[in-house]
Amino acid sequence: MRRLILILVTLALAAACSNSSGPSGPPPRATVNVVLQDSTYKPLLSDTASFYAKVGEGRRVRLVYQGSTPTDSGAEFLRFEVPNDGLYLKPDGTPFGANDSILITVKVLDPKKFLFDFQPAGVQFNPNDPARLKAEYQYADHDFNGDGVIDSTDADIEAIVDLWRREPPDTSWTKVGAVKFESLQELDANVFSFTQYAVAW
User: Fold this and answer.
1) How far, in Å, CA of 196 to CA of 106, rounded?
2) Parallel, antiparallel, or unpaired for β 48-54 and 174-175?
3) pTM of the full structure
């Protein structure tokens, strides 16, 4: 009896390990429909921002639209935050030590699209307290399908808009599964490593 129980437990563990990733999400895709910026709204104040993330200190960076003048800060477009214990592994795979810091750069790859890149490649964040990304798409072109009319079809598309990621330069897009606040037109997601991201469907 004891041997039978041991065999059953072993089989159960093997089955659990084979499905350790949990329910599978949507399959990766070669292309996605990246949401476009509203061409009638103000442009971004800058398409690039940098900051030093440091062990033991929570830090963040923001990208914003132009305000009332071309040099004023306006509405927020993107926010990226690294908590005080968020830094985990350097690009060379070694762990961050006490007081270490690293220059992080966020760049919008196309000012007409919600498409952005994070550098340096290879940085990894604490799986228990990862970095966090917030993207706001309230100033997107809400004619999502580009047919010249904002209608129920566009509302259906907006319902499936999410954050997608890919490892450049030539890999498939994977859906992140961000937390979506539709009333705010905002996507929030944990970031575990650097890559390209897009607000897309």
Assistant:
1) 10
2) unpaired
3) 0.83
- Which residues have CB under 8 Å from 41's CB, separation 6+? 65, 139
Concatenating the DSSP letter of every residue in the chain gives: -HHHHHHHHHHHHHHHHHTTT-S--SPPBS---BPBB-TTSPPBS-SEEEEEEETTB-EEEEEEEE-SSTTSEEEEEEEEEE-TT-EEE-TTSPBP-TT-EEEEEEEES-TTBSEEEEESTT-EE-TTS-EEEEEE-TTB-S-TT-SS--SHHHHHHHHH-EEEEE-SSS--BEE---EEETTTTEEEEEE-B--EEEEE-
Q: What is the pLDDT of residue 25?
A: 65
Rounded CA separation 194/201 (Å)? 21
Question: For the chain, what is the radius of gyration of the CA atoms?
Answer: 20
Give 150's Cβ-side CA count (13 Å radius). 6
Cβ pair 49, 87 in contact under 8 A = no
Mean predicted confidence (pLDDT) in 105-131: 96
Q: Give the CA-trace dihedral at 126, 113, 170, 62, to 10 degrees.
A: -20
**Domains of the chain as residue ranges with CATH:** 25-200 (2.60.220)
- Report in angstroms the alpha-carbon separations of 137 from 36, 75, 77, 119: 9, 11, 7, 22
Whether residue 8 is predicted with pLDDT greater than 50 in this model: the reply is no
The pLDDT assigned to 171 comes to: 84
